Amino acid sequence: MDTSRINRPRRSGFPVRRLLWGVLAIAALIGLGYYLARHQDRQVQEEVEASDLDRLVVALRENRNRLEVYRLSGTVTTKRETRGGIGDILQGEMTVRQPWSVAYFVNMGDLGLDDYVWDERTRTLLVRAPAASPEAPNIDESRQVVAYDGPLITRDMQSRLRQGVAIGARQQAAGEAAKPENLAAATRSAREAIARNIQGPLQAAGLGNVTVVVRAPTDGRAGGSERWDVSRSIAEVLEERAATR
Question: Residue 37 burial (CB < 10 Å; 0-12/13-18/19+)?
Fold first, then answer.
């Protein structure tokens, strides 16, 4: 009888399998830890983005002031003639030279959240601003230089002349304010004024360094603005976020 076969120890695969399972378990734990860390990082990032957006919304909703963005001034000379006296035999003329000014305003209250686009990656806020509009001219009658021409100008004639001069001066100043070159200057100034006006509340809200880009209605697609045209406004982002909750 061959006893060598009986006494020979049997090899077992258990230690190798145990080692393999141990390695797989460690790898699984490492992978799970990595996934949980990435998931937590994403959650933190989403919370930061959401909190930034919420602070941004509060700051923009509080900024509802009426903002003067530009002022135009000059001097206008207006001449008017009239007749008076018995049978209108008298003729008089009045020439007035006087300063005027026109203020251009943008009402920030006209902007809604659909007029803002927020790019979290570049921390850029795009503002689709309304057009700057001129107010009624202010005529400085305290600095008038008045000249009359006529043999005799009655009080009634003076009243009509002054009324006509006042109307003419306002019309001339309003016409000057409505010229394309002056409206363009007001638009350029409005971009800077609106950006400065928004920066203050954003910093007060703790948003730090934010770049504000203002687009006027006359800008069209110039300056590579196509990217903004397809971007979601803050109002759309809030609607989407509310729908997913």
Answer: exposed
CA torsion 154→158→159→165, rounded to 10°? 160
Per-residue pLDDT tens digits for 193-236: 999 999 988 888 888 889 999 998 877 654 455 566 667 888 88
- What distance in Å separates the CA atoms of residue 214 and residue 219, rounded to the nearest whole number? 10
- Bridge partners, residue 106, by sequence: 67
Q: Enter the DSSP assignment of 220.
A: T
Q: How far is CA 32 from CA 37, 83, 124, in A?
A: 8, 98, 36
Q: Which of 131, 156, 146 is nearest to 216 (CA)?
A: 131
**Bridge partners, residue 118, by sequence:** 125
Q: How long, in residues, is the chain? A: 245
Q: What are the respective helix, strand and coil percentages of the chain, to the nearest 5?
A: 55, 25, 20
Residue 96 and residue 80: Cα distance in Å, rounded? 9
In terms of Cβ atoms closer than 10 Å to its own Cβ (0-12, 13-18, 19+), residue 59 is: buried
Task: Kindly report whether the global pTM for this prediction surpasses the value 0.85.
Answer: no
* Residue partners of 194: CB distance under 8 A and separation at least 6: 67, 69, 106, 108, 127, 129, 212, 214
pLDDT tens digit string along 71-118? 999 999 999 988 887 877 888 888 999 999 999 999 988 899 999 999
Contact 136, 166 (CB under 8 A): no
Q: Which of 238, 240, 227, 245 is nearest to 61 (CA)?
A: 238
Q: CB–CB of 158/93 below 8 Å?
A: no
